[in-house]
Design a protein that fits this description.
- The structure is a single chain.
- By secondary structure, the protein is mostly helical.
- The chain has a single domain, classed as 434 Repressor (Amino-terminal Domain) (Orthogonal Bundle).
- The radius of gyration is 15 Å and the shape is elongated.
């Protein structure tokens, strides 16, 4: 459970790029400040981050339940 949670907390750029449907090369350029993502890409990144936040809340609740056993 802990390993799953910690893996989810720190996604790689490759994982975020894949989930957002953009190339790894593009996300690296955005990360380095060499390119600015267009609005459509920003919206996809927002969706990815929001979904990850929801999943993190679920995993945290699961961990909390298990910790009380």
């Amino acid at each position: 459970m802990i390993a799953t949670l910690l893996d989810y907390v720190a996604p790689t750029l490759r994982e975020v790029a894949a989930q957002a449907g953009i190339s790894y090369s593009s996300i690296r350029q955005y990360r380095k400040g060499k390119r600015t993502p267009p609005p459509a890409v920003i919206r996809r990144l927002v969706r990815v981050l929001r979904s990850r936040g929801g999943k993190l809340r679920t995993l945290a609740a699961e961990l909390e339940r298990r910790g009380g056993e």
